[in-house]
Amino acid sequence: MVVSARKLGSLIFLAVLLVVIGYVILHVKEHERYDVYIVFTFYLNIGIFLIHILKEVSKRSFSFCLFFDMFALFFFGFAALLQFFTNQFIWRLQAESTEVLICNLIIFLWAVFFYSGRNVKIVLKGNDFNKKYTMRKNARYILCFFSIFIMLYYIKTIGLSNLFLRSTNSYGETVDTTTALLAVHGLRNISLYSLAFNIVYCRKQGKVDAICIIAAVCFLVSCFPTAVSRNVAAAYYMGLIILTFPKVRKTQWLPIILIVGLVVVFPLLGNMRNATSTTEGMEMVQGTSLGDTYLTGDYDAFSMIMIIRRYVLDNGATLGRQLLGVLLFFVPRKIWPTKPIGTGATVIGPVMSQSFANVSAPLIGEAYVNGGMLGTIVMGFIVGIMTGSADNKYWKTKDEFARVRMIYPFNLLQFFFMMRGDLLSSWAYFFATYFVGSVIWKLSVIEEKA
Predict the structure, then answer these.
(1) What does the alpha-carbon distance between residue 414 and residue 139 come to, in Å, rounded to a whole number?
(2) Which residues, 6+ apart, have CB-to-CB distance to 115 below 8 Å?
(3) How much is the pTM?
(4) Residue 134 φ/ψ, nearest 5 degrees
(5) Which residues pair with 134 in a beta bridge?
(6) Domain residue spans in the chain?
(7) What is the spatial distance between Cα 239 and Cα 62, in angstroms, rounded to a whole number?
(8) pLDDT of 202-241, one tens digit each?
(9) Contacting residues for 395 by C-beta, under 8 A, at least 6 apart
(10) Closest by CA position to 297, among listed 286, 283, 287, 307
(11) Cα–Cα dist 365/50, whole Å
């Protein structure tokens, strides 16, 4: 593959940026612990992730694979190594050297089989990457009407002044999980796709009209970035950026934006999530120490794999039970009283003897708790196949109204947060976005006749 001088320059800049950021993160605190063999395994994994990031960016500006590599580099690489150096693993975990080595081995095996799965070529029948589509007559007006209805519903239910901070935007706390899923994720996704389809339509027409502006206002009120969880805000708004500015597909700017999000925005939004007013939120941001951020629960992915391994050693793998709960997330607990809870909440109490159970479990940990080392290998390979197939289909499909072109951008960052976990909640977000998008696409778009 021939790389242009401009792209080569971008790759060199990206590599230097990541190395500098990694160096800064690893030296924000004094080191208390060192083991040459453990450090070697960390740098081995970091090197693998960094090489794959540069390899992927040289081919395309974003993909599921790139988002996995970025997540792994920061959460299993930089943050985890800092926690080892400072001997401050999350949730008061006192990890032995052997546990750290085995954890790095688990991550290494997942990565190897994930990359192997991505090289499997799957040819789906009926794929025509050159099909052309257009919106049905009046579809935009119907979508805009639903957006207005949803916005007014949220204003009436929550109150306009409460719609802009997550701590006050609390619909769903007093209802069962399934109802909350339908009311919150379902309605917000309708508002999201109403704007998304209008954006693509107006771009094709070369002008912005009143319908698109109304859809944008309704979406902004219903899904204000500081009023929803970080995974929702990131997935929705980055997806809209990709749809609004198609040149993003041809540049290396999106990885830079993702890096800034990981280093700055992600920690700041985490500190703002409990604010009850805009003033309080700004005070929390000003008091943020980004160095300390990588030693908090937001970056617990590496520690959670070690905790999950301890749980499996004591109790055995769940043999797919946790995964079954994920796949059947929509079944109410009234119907299925023994429905599994999130893996993080399942393991943290028995292993760490702590009452606080609102913790996540990374996707690699989910694989391990369901099937041990074999489950990690199998699930890594399957996820590699699925993400590789989705990436190839998206980048080969030409028409912007094709289903994969409309949905894929929003699922990208949801996959990133699925890597962090836990799977029970992140899969619900991912599936809701995909399902609602597919239904709206089916009802709103038709294939152009040749």
Answers:
(1) 27
(2) 52, 65, 384
(3) 0.88
(4) -145, 160
(5) 446
(6) 133-259+399-447
(7) 11
(8) 999 989 999 999 999 999 998 888 778 778 888 999 999 9
(9) 60, 63
(10) 307
(11) 22
